[in-house]
Task: structure prediction
Amino acid sequence: MGPELSFLGYPPGRAFCYDAHAGRNPAQGTRLKTRITELLRIDFPLVQGGLWGLAYAELCGPISEAGAFGQLTAAMHATPADLAREIGRTRALTAKPFGVNLPVHARDFTQYIGVAIAEGCAAFTLTGGDPSRYIEAIAGRVPAIVLVSSVRQARNAERAGADAVIAVGQEGGGNVGRADSGTLALVPQVVDALKIPVLAAGGIADGRGILAGLALGAEGIEMGSRFIAVRECRAADAYKEALCRAGDGDTAIVILPPDSRVRVLAEDAALLAGRSLQDLTAPAQGNPGFQPRGAGQSAGLIGDVPTAAELIARLRHEAQMGLARLHALMTDPPALH
Result:
């Protein structure tokens, strides 16, 4: 393995390092090493978002196989046994680590935790509510990673025992929380406030965004909307086509009673009038319900529908080229050692 290089003054292990001799194989790209890659045992510090209604084995498996971290969402499975079967389907697609998302606002997932760990879940992400009791149930078994949208939430998660947090700005898709900070401002504040590692999320869909998040001090990235527009995702073709057509003003935040904020494709916003967050969780309870097409502002960066492996190889290459560009712009670049 070649030498690891520090980035923009961050010491190894605090932000990220990369292997100077990796990336010669285009299918692999730059090797980035952070506390997140070590925690999740992955090659590239990228986590697939929970993607309510879409995060099944056929998406999760190929993402993990390509060196990132795929996830299933427990909410789509009526019983722990159903989730166990989906984990088994995923394990048939990859021997690499993957996780399970628990959207804690939806229902009680306590009984799912032990089953998921026994079947091979490598980490949980906790989103959409107070994660404390789930952190306690998971503690010491696999990592627990909490989605936050403010510094206060991040501090609470760390005090409760979270192993890492995902700081999501208002640019993100789906349920974005009640805070009003954007990713660019939020992530470094969360990094400065915590000792545990931070992932950046919200508005990220390419290697430039990944590099930007790492430059802010994050040690990984969670990406949701971009993984909807890959071939393995079971989203309808019309959904993927809408993401590919979307421009910079084609998403909107809708406030749902009692106090939830959801970012969706703008053309779906009117369809949410008079609905609550519970209406959107109904499909997981066996009711057809209504599922708006969640999308972050990064939709304006989506223009094609590659395979998951093709996308991750591209992201690796873009991050590598972006780092090289930044280094070339420095008139007196730091010594690389």
User: Anything to note?
Assistant: The chain has one domain: 4-238+303-327.
